[in-house]
Amino acid sequence: MTTRRYLEAARATRRRWDSRYAEGETPWDTQITPPEVEAFWRSGRLSPHGVALDLGCGPGTNVRYLARLGLTALGVEIAAAPLRLAQRRLAYEPPVARARAGFVCADVCALPFHALGACYVLDVGCLHSLPPEDRPWYTQSLLANLAPGGYYQLYAFDQVDAPDAMFSSQEPPARGPRGMALGEAARLFTPALEIVEEVIARPERRPCRWYLLRKP
Ligand SMILES: C[S@@+](CC[C@H](N)C(=O)[O-])C[C@H]1O[C@@H](n2cnc3c(N)ncnc32)[C@H](O)[C@@H]1O
Quick one: average pLDDT of 54-72? Predict the structure, then answer.
């Protein structure tokens, strides 16, 4: 893809998400950190030190949670409206957590940093919305910034077969993410990452699952 076409596509993505926020169509914005994320941090697999990334962080609920735990938490988000909300909500955090949290306006498929050495990368509902042809770029960006021994936790809708015609890679659906096909996590991330867990979650609007992967 040429730079110009890439920039046009990124602007279109940003506009699409900004209009969702402007219309208040944001059912994911519960301001509650998912219990699965809390369970990961309670599990003791990692201690809460070092850098954590939240890809497609939206209004930053999980960035604030990770910063409160003690991590240096960085949210990456393409749209302007959720970033404004994230900054506004961050102001209510205790100063220590506020100092550990930050937000970057960027495309998760072209992260503006490399070798960040994150011990933990979270994605709640971003990868599953990306066009299939962009997903390998997301993989590259993720792998470049996850430290050896680091974990990647992902929440994604399953791909539904019925409306496939709507989900062609040329014409993204106006509403609703494409989801992840069966076996897609393995295709995108292994063998660079190992799949530690793949758990079918209680359906939320659509069948969905939680994935936990680790960089050896
Ligand atoms: C379903 S929302 C989830 C937001 C947040 N993770 C949460 O759980 O509240 C998906 C978010 O990903 C962002 N997003 C979509 N495509 C993106 C991209 N290519 N780069 C960065 N952010 C993106 C959207 O703007 C949106 O805020």
Answer: 98
Instruction: List, in sequence order, the alpha helices (H) in 78-183.
Output: 80-90, 95-100, 135-145
CATH of domain 3-214: 3.40.50.150
Contacts of 201 (CB under 8 A, 6+ apart): 36, 155, 208, 209, 210
Closest CA to 36 of 205, 200, 159, 193: 200
pTM exceeds 0.70, yes or no: yes
Name residue 151's beta-bridge partners.
120, 214
138 lines ligand 1 (CB under 6 A): no
CA 102 centroid distance within chain: 15
Does residue 188's CB lie within 6 angstroms of at least one atom of ligand 1? no
